Amino acid sequence: MDTHSSHLTAPNRSRSSQSPSPSHSSATSSIHKRKLVSDDHAPPFPPSSLSADTRDGALTSNDDLESISARGGGADSDSDDDSDEEAPEAANAEDSDEDDSSIRTFTTARLDAANAGGGSGSARNTKIKTENLSSSVTVKIENSDGTKDGGALGTGPAGPTAQAGSSVPGIVVKEDATKIFTENIQTSGAYSAREESLKREEEAGRLKFVCLSNDGVDEHMVWLIGLKNIFARQLPNMPKEYIVRLVMDRSHKSVMVIRRNLVVGGITYRPYISQKFGEIAFCAITADEQVKGYGTRLMNHLKQHARDVDGLTHFLTYADNNAVGYFIKQGFTKEIHLEKDRWHGYIKDYDGGILMECKIDPKLPYTDLSTMIRRQRQAIDEKIRELSNCHIVYSGIDFQKKEAGIPKKIIKVEDIPGLREAGWTPDQWGHSRFRIVSASTDSATHQKHLTAFMRSLLKSLNDHVDAWPFKEPVDARDVPDYYDIIKDPMDLKTMSKRVESEQYYVTFEMFVADVKRMFFNARTYNSPETIYYKCSTRLESHFQSKVHSGLQSVNKIQQ
Ligand SMILES: CC(=O)SCCNC(=O)CCNC(=O)[C@H](O)C(C)(C)COP(=O)(O)OP(=O)(O)OC[C@H]1O[C@@H](n2cnc3c(N)ncnc32)[C@H](O)[C@@H]1OP(=O)(O)O
């Protein structure tokens, strides 16, 4: 078995610093070190049409690469610039204006080092794991011939089919209420929205996902060259020779996003059919189109194709540090659960990248996840409707206020729309601590007792020596910025009006909330050393003791 040293290039998938993802800072990865695996691939290039080394699927010189590029791109050949690899009309969306001299320098050094058995190249290039050069791992490669697009869904959506709007028995829902509810349903999250929009683009023929390997078909070759250019741009530390070799290698396949006959991005992977797993070699989206959902949809197409056409159950990849977040969102984990003997020795080894795994679900409709999610949402929603009334929205109450926030019109609790329907009965006066009324007493009696209790508490507050700062609303003429800071002012006089209206405080807790608000305001506006702050603390503790003793005596009366 001839294992070409040029296969030992230790690529680094670091992304281009010229095209940072909006949501992720760019960082330069260390140079990955790739171990050798035996390479009994099928020949990558048809000998008749491309002047390439076909011995073991490896290219041995830059001349070979240029000849491929020239053919695939149909452009002039220029050994020092990637522009030779652009197709005249349909290459890819990347421009190739980068200065790639550093990469070529790196590549040359790497190739030299590898040829010399991992000799003493400079910097990280010397770290190639050369021990594997001499290892003779025999890898059985099964040719992958499934090159058609992602298969049809093998299974139907997992979620139950949604029923048409069901009504809850026994409850009359106003039409407009139902409408409000329907409008409020959250039909999709950001993930589904992006997937659905790209799916619509596909259905309209404006976008397509293809899975190809080097088959000599002109259009396919142009796309593959376009994809290769995106990889070269987005993975700038990856030797271009290495990229073109793998993209053109017939044992690798590439799933590509094509829009208006231009490649937007893609994933090149190698299916190990006998081992039922695939290794993702490269994955990139052109700079202008990142973080728009293409990467996710691409991965979904890849999973669907790999499962339905290649029969794979897992993917492995050495993810660039910058891309770990993306892979995690695609279901990859850093924990490798795949039995080691299924993959060890098959995939190239990197130091610097993070080995990640993704289990391909046997049933999920990967290219139609948004429909599945929508149906599941609907099913859950139907279930909630069955079990609860919370979806019913009643029209609001007319609550106009006059002085001190007291309602203009008395609204009886039992008249609040929907309260009885929700199970409320007049004996349920909430969980107020002030429960002087028995279950049979009407609400008027309850309110009378409550008013008397609150009145006595207010009197006790007003009579206290520390009450003076709280007796009247703060005068903005005296304290100009008070109402800029205190947005919900409260004072004993306002509370007194509310108590005397016998309409405002329908529970004791509402009264206590106003008292607490008053003290909180004082301690918010004033610093601890001020008299106002101190008065509020002392008056509050007086109030608490009065409430405590008052409630105790109420309880005694009840017993
Ligand atoms: C094996 C390898 O090839 S490793 C190298 C991977 N490739 C690169 O780093 C090249 C540069 N980057 C890219 O080409 C692209 O950004 C890709 C391929 C990583 C992702 O493609 P995109 O089209 O941008 O992904 P997409 O828009 O579907 O985003 C999916 C989610 O991943 C997040 N994401 C995208 N890129 C990254 C990243 N580099 N790191 C962390 N999260 C990311 C997105 O914010 C989005 O999150 P959300 O669903 O919470 O909104």
TrEMBL record:
Disordered, as annotated region: 1-168
GO biological process: positive regulation of transcription by RNA polymerase II
Pfam families in alphabetical order: Acetyltransf_1, Bromodomain
Domain Bromo: 462-533
InterPro entries xrefs: Acyl_CoA_acyltransferase (IPR016181), Bromodomain (IPR001487), Bromodomain-like_sf (IPR036427), Bromodomain_CS (IPR018359), GCN5 (IPR037800), GNAT_dom (IPR000182)
EC numbers, comma separated: 2.3.1.48
One cellular component term from this protein's GO annotations in UniProt: histone acetyltransferase complex
Stretches with biased composition (Acidic residues): 77-100
Matches recorded under CDD domains: Bromo_gcn5_like, NAT_SF
GO molecular function: histone H3 acetyltransferase activity
Keywords for this protein: Activator, Acyltransferase, Bromodomain, Chromatin regulator, Nucleus, Transcription, Transcription regulation, Transferase
Biased composition (Polar residues): 1-13
Subcellular location: Nucleus
Protein family per UniProt: Belongs to the acetyltransferase family. GCN5 subfamily.
Name used for this protein in its record: histone acetyltransferase
